[in-house]
Amino acid sequence: MKLDNIRLLVTEFDACLYFYQETLGFKRTWGEPGGDYASFDVGDGMVLALFRRKLMAEAVGTGNLPVSTQEQDNFALIFEVSDLEKTVHDIEWRGGKFVTSIEDKSLWGIRTVHLRDPDGNLIEFITTLPQHKWDESLIERDQTYK
Fold first, then answer.
1. Does 135 lie in the same domain as 81?
2. φ, ψ (nearest 5 deg) of residue 17
3. Do residues 127 and 84 lie in contact, with contact meaning Cβ atoms separated by under 8 Å?
4. Phi and psi angles of residue 120, each rounded to the nearest 5 degrees, phi first
5. What is the CATH number of the domain that holds 13?
Protein backbone atom coordinates (compact mmCIF):
# COMPACT_ATOMS: atom_id res chain seq x y z
CA MET A 1 0.00 0.00 0.00
CA LYS A 2 1.20 3.49 -0.80
CA LEU A 3 -0.24 6.91 0.02
CA ASP A 4 -1.17 8.51 -3.29
CA ASN A 5 -2.02 12.08 -2.19
CA ILE A 6 -3.67 14.24 0.42
CA ARG A 7 -6.98 15.67 -0.82
CA LEU A 8 -8.48 18.62 1.03
CA LEU A 9 -12.25 18.87 0.74
CA VAL A 10 -12.94 22.59 0.49
CA THR A 11 -15.91 24.92 0.14
CA GLU A 12 -13.84 27.93 -1.02
CA PHE A 13 -12.29 26.17 -4.02
CA ASP A 14 -11.03 29.19 -6.01
CA ALA A 15 -9.69 30.99 -2.94
CA CYS A 16 -7.87 27.82 -1.84
CA LEU A 17 -6.48 27.24 -5.35
CA TYR A 18 -5.08 30.77 -5.35
CA PHE A 19 -3.74 30.39 -1.79
CA TYR A 20 -1.82 27.16 -2.40
CA GLN A 21 -0.46 28.35 -5.75
CA GLU A 22 0.22 32.04 -5.17
CA THR A 23 0.57 32.46 -1.39
CA LEU A 24 2.39 29.21 -0.58
CA GLY A 25 4.05 28.98 -4.00
CA PHE A 26 3.20 25.36 -4.88
CA LYS A 27 3.24 24.40 -8.55
CA ARG A 28 -0.26 23.59 -9.81
CA THR A 29 -0.18 20.35 -11.81
CA TRP A 30 -3.90 20.09 -12.59
CA GLY A 31 -7.06 22.16 -12.37
CA GLU A 32 -8.22 25.69 -12.91
CA PRO A 33 -10.29 28.38 -11.20
CA GLY A 34 -13.97 27.51 -11.32
CA GLY A 35 -13.20 23.79 -11.47
CA ASP A 36 -13.87 21.03 -9.00
CA TYR A 37 -10.40 19.51 -8.60
CA ALA A 38 -6.84 20.81 -8.54
CA SER A 39 -3.51 19.29 -7.58
CA PHE A 40 -0.15 20.71 -6.55
CA ASP A 41 3.39 19.40 -6.45
CA VAL A 42 4.49 19.92 -2.85
CA GLY A 43 7.93 18.36 -3.26
CA ASP A 44 9.54 14.92 -3.13
CA GLY A 45 6.88 13.45 -5.41
CA MET A 46 4.06 14.31 -2.98
CA VAL A 47 0.76 15.71 -4.20
CA LEU A 48 -1.70 17.94 -2.38
CA ALA A 49 -5.11 18.10 -4.04
CA LEU A 50 -8.23 20.21 -3.62
CA PHE A 51 -11.74 18.91 -4.26
CA ARG A 52 -15.07 20.62 -3.77
CA ARG A 53 -16.47 19.35 -0.47
CA LYS A 54 -20.03 19.26 -1.80
CA LEU A 55 -19.10 16.80 -4.56
CA MET A 56 -17.39 14.39 -2.17
CA ALA A 57 -20.38 14.60 0.19
CA GLU A 58 -22.65 13.65 -2.68
CA ALA A 59 -20.36 10.77 -3.65
CA VAL A 60 -20.31 9.25 -0.16
CA GLY A 61 -23.89 10.10 0.84
CA THR A 62 -23.23 12.79 3.44
CA GLY A 63 -24.71 15.75 1.53
CA ASN A 64 -27.47 16.09 4.12
CA LEU A 65 -25.00 16.77 6.97
CA PRO A 66 -23.82 20.26 8.01
CA VAL A 67 -20.90 21.67 6.00
CA SER A 68 -19.04 22.72 9.11
CA THR A 69 -19.25 22.90 12.84
CA GLN A 70 -17.20 24.87 15.28
CA GLU A 71 -14.71 22.43 16.75
CA GLN A 72 -11.04 21.85 17.32
CA ASP A 73 -8.97 21.02 14.25
CA ASN A 74 -9.18 17.45 12.95
CA PHE A 75 -5.83 17.58 11.15
CA ALA A 76 -2.92 19.80 10.24
CA LEU A 77 -0.78 19.87 7.10
CA ILE A 78 2.86 19.89 8.18
CA PHE A 79 5.59 21.18 5.87
CA GLU A 80 9.25 20.98 6.83
CA VAL A 81 11.33 23.90 5.57
CA SER A 82 15.04 24.65 5.80
CA ASP A 83 14.67 28.34 6.74
CA LEU A 84 11.56 29.05 8.81
CA GLU A 85 12.07 32.82 9.06
CA LYS A 86 12.52 33.17 5.29
CA THR A 87 9.46 31.00 4.64
CA VAL A 88 7.35 33.16 6.96
CA HIS A 89 8.69 36.35 5.37
CA ASP A 90 7.98 35.09 1.84
CA ILE A 91 4.44 33.94 2.67
CA GLU A 92 3.62 37.18 4.49
CA TRP A 93 4.97 39.15 1.52
CA ARG A 94 2.55 37.21 -0.70
CA GLY A 95 -0.36 38.02 1.62
CA GLY A 96 -0.41 35.08 4.01
CA LYS A 97 -1.50 35.75 7.60
CA PHE A 98 -0.02 33.61 10.34
CA VAL A 99 -2.12 32.73 13.40
CA THR A 100 0.91 32.07 15.62
CA SER A 101 4.42 33.45 15.86
CA ILE A 102 7.51 31.34 15.33
CA GLU A 103 8.07 29.39 18.52
CA ASP A 104 10.59 26.82 19.72
CA LYS A 105 8.83 23.66 20.92
CA SER A 106 11.56 21.94 22.92
CA LEU A 107 9.19 19.09 23.87
CA TRP A 108 8.66 18.40 20.15
CA GLY A 109 12.22 19.14 18.97
CA ILE A 110 11.08 21.71 16.40
CA ARG A 111 10.55 25.39 15.69
CA THR A 112 7.04 25.95 14.40
CA VAL A 113 4.56 28.51 13.07
CA HIS A 114 0.92 28.18 11.93
CA LEU A 115 -1.50 29.69 9.44
CA ARG A 116 -4.82 28.75 7.87
CA ASP A 117 -5.93 28.45 4.28
CA PRO A 118 -9.13 30.22 3.10
CA ASP A 119 -11.20 27.19 4.15
CA GLY A 120 -9.74 27.27 7.66
CA ASN A 121 -7.45 24.24 7.31
CA LEU A 122 -4.52 24.39 9.71
CA ILE A 123 -1.03 24.49 8.19
CA GLU A 124 2.17 24.16 10.19
CA PHE A 125 5.68 24.93 8.99
CA ILE A 126 8.50 23.34 10.96
CA THR A 127 12.25 23.11 11.14
CA THR A 128 14.20 20.80 13.43
CA LEU A 129 15.75 22.30 16.54
CA PRO A 130 19.37 21.42 17.27
CA GLN A 131 19.34 18.56 19.79
CA HIS A 132 20.94 20.72 22.49
CA LYS A 133 17.67 22.75 22.51
CA TRP A 134 15.47 19.67 22.95
CA ASP A 135 13.71 19.01 26.24
CA GLU A 136 15.49 16.33 28.28
CA SER A 137 12.45 14.03 28.12
CA LEU A 138 12.53 14.16 24.30
CA ILE A 139 16.22 13.29 24.26
CA GLU A 140 15.51 10.28 26.52
CA ARG A 141 12.62 9.09 24.31
CA ASP A 142 14.75 9.56 21.19
CA GLN A 143 17.43 7.29 22.67
CA THR A 144 14.92 4.47 23.26
CA TYR A 145 14.04 4.40 19.54
CA LYS A 146 17.62 4.18 18.29
1. yes
2. -60, -50
3. yes
4. 90, 5
5. 3.10.180.10
pLDDT in tens, the chain (146 residues): 998 999 999 999 999 999 999 999 999 999 999 999 999 999 999 999 999 999 999 999 998 998 877 789 889 999 999 999 999 999 999 999 999 999 999 999 999 999 999 999 999 999 999 999 999 999 999 888 87
* CATH classification of the domain holding 106: 3.30.720.110
**From CA 118, how far away is CA 77, in angstroms rounded?**
14
* Other beta carbons less than 10 A from residue 27's beta carbon: 11
C-alpha dist (Å) from residue 9 to 6, 13, 74: 10, 9, 13
- Edge to edge, the sheet with strand 103-105 lists 76-80, 122-128, 110-116, 103-105
Whether 83 and 32 share a structural domain: no
Q: What is the H or E stretch that residue 128 is in?
A: strand 122-128
Domain extent for 50: 1-64
